[in-house]
Design brief:
This protein is an alpha+beta fold and 256 residues long. It has six helices and six strands. Helix 2 packs across helix 3, helix 3 runs antiparallel to helix 4 and helix 5 packs antiparallel against helix 6.
Amino acid sequence: MSLQLSAEEKAVLLRDYRLTIEPAVDAAYSLLAQNLLDTEQALAYLQKIAPFFHSTSTLVTASLFAKRYSVLTMASAFYAMSRYDKGLYVGIENIWVEAEDHAKPWLPNIRLIDDSVSVPTQDREAWRDEVLQGIFVGNLAKVWQSLTKISKIPKAILWENTAIYVNWLYETKISEGASEQEKARIQEDYHYIVNQAPGSLFGERKNPLTNYCGPKVTIKESEQPIRLRKTCCFYYHTSDEANDFCISCPKIKRLG
């Protein structure tokens, strides 16, 4: 018999972590994720969603879509892994991107075709590697390769987009309401993902997140310490205001 999330566990993921169990009412902006690996279908999808980002460039659309795709792929999977010790299967052939055209901001969800889960047996570290490999090798690395081919966007930008959400999830979201024991496991998982996991789990020669997960710095533009980006995500291309950069953008000229 296959293992499942409990009703309570599923409710949390449905509410806060981009998981859905229902197809979108308006399926025009939904997509079987595997179609992102087909050049023609992926390009057509980027062109269809470009207006949500006020984008006239395939490169810009690819970057901004990748932000959303990375978080919807990782959020529920990381939460289930680190809070519940349960592994969702988010390989690209197992998920639908579900989105409505009226949502503002435009935030897709993930729907699993097979929603069974795995659990660690005696070796949690080996199990964790399998979960991470499903997230990255089985999904994100393939999509990033496809988006790079279609839009010519450097993969470094896509991986930094990914790293930003790994940091946010593990530093801010996943530990909310956690017990001390759970917090220790969350911190251990986070440290492993960004610092110790080998490149093979990401489909890369070396860990592509490590370079973007260093210490935060203090800048005059922010009350709280932040990490400065090393690559630009091109968000400023979608703004009506000149030089409307993200606060962490490397294009901002900073003093000192």
